[in-house]
Amino acid sequence: MTSPMTKNVLKYGSVLLPLLGFAAPAAEARERKADVAPYIEIQQVLVADLKDGSDVLTYTSVAAGVDTSIQTRNAAAQLNVRYERRFYYQDNLGDDDIVTGLARGRVQLVPNLLSLEAGGIATRSRVDLRGGAPSNTVGNIDNVTQVYSVYAGPDLSTQVGALDVNAGYRIGYTKVENKSTGALPPGQIPIDVFDDSVSQSASLSVGMKPGELPVGWAVSAGWDREDGGQLDQRFDAKHVRADVTVPVSGTLALVGGVGYEDIEISERDAVRDANGVPVIGDDGRLVTDETSPRLLSYDQDGVFWDAGVLWRPSRRTSLEARVGQRYGSETYFGSFAYQPNQNMALNISVYDTVSGFGNLLNDNLASLGTNFSSSRNPLSGELNGCAFGETSSLCFNDVLQSAAASSFRARGVNGQLTYNTGGWNTGLGLGYARRSYFASQLGAVSAVDGLVDQNYYANLSVGRELDAYSSFDANLYANLLDSGFVDAPNVLGIGANAAYYRQILPRLQGTAAVGLDSFQQDGFDSALTASALLGLRYDF
To answer: Which residues in the chain show pLDDT less than 50?
Structure first.
């Protein structure tokens, strides 16, 4: 959104704001520059379990990556990708490979008419909110899995006489690797873990700014579809709506919209044994019964509406706030963006949407700008929860809080602040995410129908150049996870890490880092691990 801008804010904000005569927040810079920085790293890492002094793990890491930023008149892209191979010295641990990265790009195929957008992410997700919440993902860990997601599609924006016309389409693919949840509280059964899905989204809007008429208006339509491999789950949503804006002053307008939508979510049953118990395959997921009829888990159609205000006092400040009726109850959504100068940017969003795991992850990617910095854990090399940019930032904590296969209604609030002054670079992300799950009462995952989980999170990144040859950065995080399952305790994860970087020779950099990570869960032994790293990095 600015933080994870879901469908409501994305479609009714960035699409309808220009149509209704309000400029979108200040566009990202288009300086003519292209920076490509490939690198290799070698590191020696030590991880110690402070709850059990005898459990000490050491390993060697070899990594290669590239950080790329392109900002030209007709193209903008940011790519940060890293491949790591870990070599363990313990007999009970096999070497492993980790790919992490974040990318967003936009190319103008026809200037001022047609563009192509794409994005991708490779990262880790928690599997089940009731399990452990490790952030130092080293060794034989449970409840953390690898996630990959990509999307691409064209966007059209043009004028036909006095009419503004916008259209877009994207297709995406999301894959979650198989991973055990590990130990769960007594009496708790595992959730069905997301496997993969193909997501599609299409939109069309036509409108006119205030001017020739005393009010602005827009008519739009949208379609979202996600086909999941697990239990052949299907999410299908269509809507049409009309919006009107009534200018109150040069910076303030009242807005309202009404529409009709049809959302249907369905699944198939699992294969069952002679006793009627669902069968679990070798990958730990339920085996789909391909002969099963489709089972409805959510069916909502009817009229929805919302109304609110648009406030644009300057090019640096933008507010949208709406309230209405949708998904069978009240809905609230909006966004606030404030960028008083190049050194500070604040983005806040409130969202409410019905989605699936893959669709929501693609929506998050699509809302991230093409000029950002994605910080990494200096000890594990993995992405931290947020990416920060001058005009748009994003935290993935809401979508990566768990990899449940079932679709859900997602509501929450996210905020990101970037502040750079006096040589200090600071990024803060805060948020609350709530999901209400849908599943058929006749299917194999009926236990999650109506389940509500919640996640409270915070991420802080601070960095500074000490002199021409050295710098440091530090990261702090906290997550409080409530799975919603009866008798399942909350899980609290907290941690901090810091790294010092020193230029040894041209293109050769030395790194020293330390970290402390902990998660606590009632009824289980808490975990507290300390980490230390020494490494070298060569930039080509």
So the answer is: 1-30
